[in-house]
Each structure stands twice: as C-alpha cells, then as structure tokens.
Design goal:
Elements lengths: L12 H7 L6 H6 L2 H7 L6 H9 L16 H14 L2 H11 L9 H17 L5 H12 L7 H12 L5 H15 L3 H10 L8 H17 L6 H14 L3 H7 L6 H4 L15 H4 L12 H10 L7 E2 L2 E2 L15 H9 L12 E5 L4 E9 L3 E6 L6 E5 L3 E6 L15 H11 L4
Helix pairs in contact: 3-4, 5-7, 6-7, 7-9, 9-11, 10-11, 10-12, 17-19
Length: 425
C-alpha cells in the first residue's frame, strides 16, 4: 500500500537557520558559506545539493582543509567531491591519503563511498607512483573477498586496475568465478579478469577459458550476449603470450569457432530415417521427460548454433516458439534433413576463385575491392578475397547444420528432445 511519512522531530533553530539557504534556490545555494555547505554534507536530505554547490567553488577554497575535518562522514563526502572535480595533481595527494586508510567492510555505505572515491581518483589521476599503487593494493587485498556481493564487486574492479595486486587478486577472482557459475555474477569476474597479465598459471588460464567456452553455450540472455562474450574473449586473448596461446589451443576460440559444443561422449546409435520415426510422433502426447529433452539439446550439439531460453549461440534460427512455426512432423524432417529448407539469411555463401579454390562461409564485410568471408569449415577464420579473383559467388544449397545429429540418440531420447522443443505449443 501507500504510506505517508512525516517527521515529528524539531531541529534546533540554529541548525535549521544554517540550512535554509540550501533549500531556497540556486542563487542562494551559490552564495551559501563554505561552513554551511560543509554542514550540508552531513545531512542526507540536502547532501546532493550541498555537494553540487561545493564542487562549483574553486577547490583551493576547501580542499586543503579536508584532513582537518573532524566529522568522518563529512570528510568522506569532501574527498568524493575532490575526486570528482580536483586536478590530477590533487588526485595524487588524495590517493596517498586513501592508501593509509583502513577499510572496514562492516560499514557498508561508508565503505562503498570510500571505494567510489578511490575509483574516481585512480581514473583521473596523473600516473600514480608504483609505491602508492602497492599500498592501495595491500589495503584492498586485506579485505578481499569480504563476503558482501556489492563490496566484492567494487573491490574486484579496483584490484583489477592495480598491476601490483594481480599475483594475489587473480587466484581469488578465479575462485569467485568458479563459485558464481554461468551467470551475471560469473560474467562480472570474467570481465574484471580479462586484462590481467600477472598471477596466471597454465591451469588458471585454462580455467578462465573453460568458463568462457561453457558460457558460449550456457549463458542466458538476449542475442547480444554472444557479442559481449566475443569482446571479452578478444581482450583476454590479447594478453596471452605465444606460448600460452599454443598451450591453450582451441580453448581460446569461441564455441562456434571451435566447431563443437562442450564435448559429449555419446556414441552412434542408429542412422534414423523419417520412415522409422514418423509413426512414433503420436507418442509425443503421452507425457515425455522434458528434463532429459533439455539436457539432450546440448548433447546433440543444438546449442552450437541455436539459442533457446537465452542459451546457446545465435548462428542459426532461434528455437524459442518452434511450436508456433512447426508441427511435429515438419520439425522432425528439418532435423533429419537440414538442407530440405533453409532461409536465405542462414545460408552459407559459396565462392569459387579463378584459381579453383572453393570457400564456404558467411560474408561479414568487404568493400569495392575485397570480400570478407568467415569460413564455416576448417580454421573458421575470416578470409579476404579480392573481388578480381572471384569466378562465381552464390548461396549454398547445403545447410550449415550437419545431418545425423539425431543419430547418437535412442528412440525415447529423440521423442523427449522433440517434446522439449515443442513444449510451448
């Protein structure tokens, strides 16, 4: 319901009088005394107004007296204002002071304010001395992880910006990544780790890229998610040495580039045909195991190219809402014979060169001189093809989706998979 709240308190006349200018309009705000503005920083109701007015004054009028402010809350707000509007040289002084400050995670609001101040100061500072960065890293590492979600996120962002912290920060952050799973929290830790160059071992590198591989197929979200993951992976790969890249092999590639979903040990069962499976479709109405059907979606490599319920890669058509587009028989036939009907926007392009090469993939760019083709097979890299060397170019009649994806499933599993795909109908 709705509630009306009013105060029964009666502030002292002197204090009320000192705060009146802050509620009287912008002109009065600009003319308020520094003492009044500083007192306003200690009042939640007019904090933002007081800080805006203070930051409009020359920093020389108020910055030098920050350390002598007896009220810790007001001093913290003054430091935030200095981080927002002070000169780069002032940032160095502020960082030096913050490096001596003890962080107390128990006071959530004050700690978040201090970390925000530190973040702004680091962003706006001239080059920070390594000795100061090392002291800051020591202060932050002393309380990381603290077990409070929002604070740990803030601490992680700050520690990731300090090279002096990486040796200890990276293993801690990888532990947070492992505990988070394939979700937004996991993405946060993968994101803050992407530029780190220290603190890695071969096993830690493998753990990081294994998370990215799993996220390619299991991270929920919209069609933009694969683009975010690709950008994250690109940044992380850029930090690898040639030796590290060689050791990781295909693990540094996106799931679609590596050509497969997370490995499945399923063996060949039967080369299913429409004649064998169509008579069984009536059993879809008899109550199927949808949990197993969902699991088989990954084991049959469907998520390598398709998204459903926010998971998988957006290469081919989305699988949400299939029941509104397909009947059971049509869906079965499209799985058994993927090339039977392929929308033009999902077809590969076949380019044959005057030298006899045949390249198959998706056109991803180009200009009047060259075509950029992302190959669907082989290295799956982007190839530059001079237009002068192209003999023919046409849409492929063969679906990028391979045939035989159902051949590792038993009959009951095929039916469970179909039931899961058609369940929203």
């Amino acid at each position: 319901g709705l509630y009306r709240i009013r105060s029964l308190g009666k502030p002292g006349a002197a204090k009320r009088a000192s705060l009146v200018p802050l509620s009287s309009g912008y002109d009065e705000l600009r003319e308020a005394s520094l003492a009044t503005l500083r007192r306003g920083l200690g009042s939640r109701g007019i904090l933002a107004a007081a800080r805006a007015a203070l930051e409009g004054r020359p920093t020389a009028e108020w910055a030098d007296s920050i350390e002598s402010e007896p009220d810790a809350r007001i001093r913290a707000q003054l430091e935030l204002s200095l981080a927002r509007v002070g000169s780069p040289e002032r940032m160095g002084e502020l960082l030096d002071a913050l490096a001596e400050r003890v962080i107390e995670p128990e006071d959530l609001a004050e700690t978040q304010l201090a970390l925000r101040t530190l973040e702004l100061a680091l962003l706006r500072a001239a080059p920070v001395a390594s000795e100061v960065r090392a002291r800051l890293a020591q202060r932050l590492l002393a309380v990381f992880p603290c077990g409070q979600l929002e604070l740990d996120r803030q601490l992680g962002i700050l520690l990731a910006s300090l090279p002096e912290a990486e040796e200890r920060f990276v293993p801690h952050a990888l532990s947070m990544l492992a505990r988070s799973g394939i979700d937004a929290e996991g993405f946060h830790w993968a994101f803050v780790l992407r530029h780190a160059t220290g603190g890695w071992t071969p096993a830690r590198r493998a753990q990081y890229f294994e998370w990215l591989r799993a996220a390619d197929f299991g991270f929920g979200g919209g069609r933009e998610v694969p683009m975010f993951l690709a950008a994250l992976r690109k940044d992380a790969v850029a930090t690898l040495s040639e030796t590290e890249r060689a050791a990781l092999g295909a693990l540094v590639l996106a799931g679609v580039d590596a050509g497969q979903a997370p490995a499945s040990s399923r063996a060949f069962v039967r080369a299913w045909s429409a004649a064998e499976l169509e008579p069984e479709l009536a059993r879809l109405e008899q109550g199927r195991d949808l949990v197993r059907g969902e699991r088989l979606l990954g084991e049959a490599s469907c998520l390598t190219c398709h998204r459903i319920e926010g998971r998988g890669l957006a290469v081919g058509p989305e699988l949400d809402g299939l029941a509104g587009r397909f009947g059971a028989e049509d869906l079965l036939l499209s799985l058994l014979d993927p090339s039977r009907e392929v929308p033009d926007r999902f077809r590969d392009t076949e380019i044959r060169t005057v030298g006899g090469r045949l390249l198959v993939g998706k056109i991803v760019g180009g200009d009047a001189e060259v075509v950029l083709l992302r190959e669907s097979y082989g290295t799956r890299g982007v190839v530059r093809i001079p237009r002068a060397e192209i003999e023919s170019q046409e849409l492929s009649r063969t679906s990028p989706m391979p045939a035989g994806l159902l051949d590792s499933l038993a009959l009951e599993e095929v039916l469970d998979l179909l039931a899961f795909l058609l369940q929203d109908g």
